[in-house]
Amino acid sequence: MALITWTAEQYATNVAFADDEHKILFDKLNKLYDLATGGAERNEIGRALDGLIDYVVEHFAHEEKEMQAKNYAGYVAHKAEHDALVGICAGLQAKFHAGEGDVTEDTGALVKGWLDSHIPTFDKAYADVLNS
Ligand code: FEO
Fold first, then answer.
1. What is the pTM of this model?
2. Burial of 120 by CB count in 10 Å (0-12 exposed, 13-18 middle, 19+ buried)?
3. Residue 71 falls in which region: left (phi positive, over 0), alpha (psi -120 to 50) or beta
4. For residues 117 and 132, what is the distance between their CA atoms, to the nearest angstrom?
5. Which DSSP letter does residue 55 get?
6. From ligand 1's centre to the CA of 123, what distance in Å?
7. Distance in Å, CA 122 to ligand 1 centroid
8. Tell me: the pLDDT tens digits for 72-104?
9. Residues with a CB atom less than 6 Å from ligand 1
10. Are the beta carbons of 125 and 13 closer than 8 angstroms?
């Protein structure tokens, strides 16, 4: 079963690029979670982990560029949230590739919990400004 399922009710920001990218991000997270909890080869899990983190960084950069372009008042607090997750991801990634950590059910729950909080609270808040 998928770790996270995009529904408009829970996750729609009504900003087209953000909703599209969130769906891709969820797909990448689900793929990683299925590999990691399904006994896949470590190399394959590592590639999925790197791909997910690369995409998260790309998505955050896109949002930040759009927020800056509109002089969005919530930019600084929003970027701080992004930076915090990127820091957590970088730590997980370094430990995984050093053979000192694994992607586990807890890892999936942590990232899902972050998205469950961040998208409705921070991403939905920029909709009016970014669509203006
Ligand atoms: Fe869609 Fe602020 O992350």
1. 0.96
2. middle
3. left
4. 24
5. H
6. 5
7. 7
8. 999 999 999 999 999 999 999 999 999 999 999
9. 18, 22, 59-60, 63, 78, 82, 118-119, 122-123
10. no
Going by pLDDT thresholds of 50, 70 and 90, the confidence category of residue 34 is: very high
Ligand 1 center to 31 CA (angstroms): 19
**CATH 1.20.120.50 for the 14-130 domain, yes or no:** yes
CA 75 – ligand 1 centroid, Å? 11
Cα R_g (the chain), whole angstroms: 15
Residue 1 has pLDDT above 80, yes or no: no
Domain boundaries, the chain: 14-130
Average pLDDT, the chain: 97
The number of residues making up the chain comes to: 132
d(CA 74, CA 67): 8
Cα angle 111, 48, 79; round to 5: 40
Question: What digits encode the pLDDT tens for the residues 35-47?
Answer: 999 999 999 999 9
Q: How far apart are CA 52 and CA 29, in angstroms?
A: 6
